[in-house]
Amino acid sequence: MKESTMSATAKRVMFGYIQTQTLHAVVKLGVPDILDAGPASAGVLAERVRARPDTLARALDVLVRLGLFCRDEDGRYAHNEDSRCLSSAHPNSLADLLLFCARESYQTFAHLPEAVRTGEAVFPEAWGAPFWDHLEANPDRAALFARAMERQSEALLRKLATDHDFGQYAEIVDVGGGKGQLFRPLAAAGVRPPCVVLDQPSVTDAAQAYLAQEGLDHVRFTAGDFFMAVPEGAALYVLKFVLHDWADPECLRILERVREAMTKSPGAKLMVIELVRGGDPSPWSYLSDMLMLSTFGAMERSEAEFRVLLNAAGFEVEAVEAIAGAHYQIVAAPRS
Ligand SMILES: C[S@@+](CC[C@H](N)C(=O)[O-])C[C@H]1O[C@@H](n2cnc3c(N)ncnc32)[C@H](O)[C@@H]1O
């Protein structure tokens, strides 16, 4: 490999922070939403978002070079296929996730060398409190995070609802289920058994409002702590994007609570939905692993690591199936 190519790769990785924050600036100003209505010049955009036209054009030119948005011969900017998901109206919008990560995660990553050295979370060093406490103390950031989680999962859950026969379960409990967003695509696919969402008390108001707004009257929200107890007696327990927030000892405690709850419903299954590290050729699952390390001192696990963890918690893995990209569903049952 030529020297120049080697340094180009190193520079691309090294200056990733410029890419993140240039995109952050453009999304925070609301440019993608304005471009939904059609192409616009830097002058028009700048007036709408109250920015300087020359600096806004320079920022947009960075993103055009990187493959987001395009610029026509008249100098007007427009969406391309890859930038549409940055508008807030897009059904799978990434805007909220970007607005959250470009601030909370971005500042946390400045401390990553310490996390790599120790294996401990560095979110508290960056923000003065552990992640969930930070959200508890900042309701607007908590609402942004909850919306980001919901949007991020929409397409994945729609796919899962058609891939897996959820109609076979008499009752479903979503452990750490946020506002209950799992149940919207399931209801849209005609699956409406009695359902329970267990999440933290701080989520209660947002969850009640969400369930009422979405007409999910078959879903009940329960405020609680999955380290203490999980609602008993359901046919299916779902843990979606929960285990990756915790190191193995905490995961074992959560899984133990789930297994206890399942003793009241023989034949019950556990479904773990997670990004599997190395589960597809893209680097995303490895990048997300660093996100989990810095934020929680946790990890994205490989399939083998999930098998070891579930086995240690007394579960037999019955199926491991890809949903989309490196997202997988892992179905397990308590070992008798
Ligand atoms: C990454 S989010 C995933 C939410 C949802 N399952 C999803 O896939 O969109 C993790 C969830 O775990 C919840 N959580 C964290 N600690 C908890 C605890 N001790 N008891 C119950 N829920 C908790 C959070 O409030 C949050 O909703």
Automatic annotation (TrEMBL):
Keyword S-adenosyl-L-methionine among record annotations: yes
Record Gene3D superfamilies: Vaccinia Virus protein VP39, Winged helix-like DNA-binding domain superfamily/Winged helix DNA-binding domain
A Pfam family reported for this protein in Swiss-Prot or TrEMBL: Dimerisation
Residue span(s) of domain O-methyltransferase C-terminal: 109-316
Superkingdom of this protein's organism: Bacteria
GO biological process terms, semicolon-separated: methylation
Keywords assigned: Methyltransferase, S-adenosyl-L-methionine, Transferase
GO molecular function: O-methyltransferase activity; protein dimerization activity
Signal peptide: none
Domain (O-methyltransferase dimerisation) ranges: 13-86
Stored InterPro entries: COMT-like, COMT_C, COMT_dimerisation, SAM-dependent_MTases_sf, WH-like_DNA-bd_sf, WH_DNA-bd_sf
Positions annotated as active site in the UniProt record: 244 (proton acceptor)
Entry keyword Methyltransferase: yes
PANTHER family membership: O-METHYLTRANSFERASE CICE (PTHR43712:SF2), PUTATIVE (AFU_ORTHOLOGUE AFUA_4G14580)-RELATED (PTHR43712)
Protein name (record): Hydroxyneurosporene-O-methyltransferase
